[in-house]
Amino acid sequence: MRRLRCLSVGVVVTTLAMAGCASRSNNTTAGNTATASAGTASSAAAASQADFGTLKNVCKPGTPASSTSQGVTATEIKLGVFTDMGFTKNPEVVDAAKVFAAWCNAAGGINGRKIVPVTRDAAYFADAQQVLASCQSDFADVGGSAALDDLGVKNRLNCLLPEFPNQPGQILSTGADLQVIAGGASVGYAPYADFYSWLIKEAYPDSADAVGVISGDSPITKVIAAQLAEQIPALGGKLSYSDLYPATGVSDWTPYAQSLKSKKVKGLVFNGDFASLAKLEQVLTNIGYKLDWIDTNNNAYGPAFIALAGSAALSAQNNYADISGVYPPEKASSNPATQQVVDLYSKYDPKAQLTLPALRAFSAWLLFATAASDCTTLTRTCVYQNAMKQTAWTGGGLQAPVDLSSTTEPPKCFNAEKATVTGWVPADFKPNTGAYRCDSVAYKFTGNYGKPLTLADVGKTMADVK
Hints:
By secondary structure, this protein is an alpha/beta fold. Helices cover 32% and strands 13% of the residues.
């Protein structure tokens, strides 16, 4: 599996709300352990409540051993949840934490300790400050994300704070030490190589020599654009057009549409907010220019883009999104694990929207809970090392399997969605492993785009982690 495309975790400046980190940018239920009365109906019900998909006894009651770790008491575990909600007004990862904690705590918590999520609102620009706050009281950070997380990664490593993000943001943070990403880090590898290979070699081979990129003018998307300039030719395509649009927004997308038409671009990668893309597509449709395909980026995967783009543009243009090997929520009834999350949302927070980042957050929470439940004495080292032992993590069935034991394992599977006038539906990408295609095309970058920070970079080692 791969990380979400981090255009900017839920944001960008003003209209540039590039939500969802690198964002092509994982998931269970907890409950009571069987006791001597395991044969009774009540204990059978408890066991059922404790399971999520294929994961067993994720959360359960118990008598926890004493722990001297920060954020851990005899009755609770305090966990930071990073968000840019103060800037984006999008509570999706906070809602996911609320739902998971309610479910897990009702099942008994982590061996008897209740989960206490603490919102750490970076509001886009304050990640470093919020990391310092988390360093003062939290046991770990779980299920969250912040667009500019490079700002705080050094502080996090200095205070030896483990992190289980729903999606990482920037280069220094993605795959950094003391971090386990439920979707896999895949450091050094192009996260969407198989998706682009499918588009330009199979779905629309005539588009291979005419691929364009339009990116919001931000540090994050500029790096993505540079990586695409390397990746597309390596996959057999040709980048014939590249442009930036201002982060403050565009009043008239006609010049961009005319440029795409004059350059005869056939495939477009759009690294920006979906509201802007919807406006661009409306102009393209009005001038009578149809692209073979548009990569909306998975920030557009949801009902808002469908409503903004409108039926005319959606009928004229072929919009696709790689959703990172996560089982599509619109098909929840066909996948027990996804349906279980839908049911938990209905029970604990019925007004909350179950989004792709929320599903990834739920997977991160499941990963943490699974790792923590296996610790006799709850320590940061134990939880981190247990999480790193997962070699085929699926979040109980929420995603395609991913090996978490290596941060440099390339993506193995992908799945693509297509936007239609009635909503998002699975694209015809020829899945060969259930809902996923797992004959992955791996591409390792040769350019220098930076690398994740290590404990050694801040003068620490794993021996310092308690």
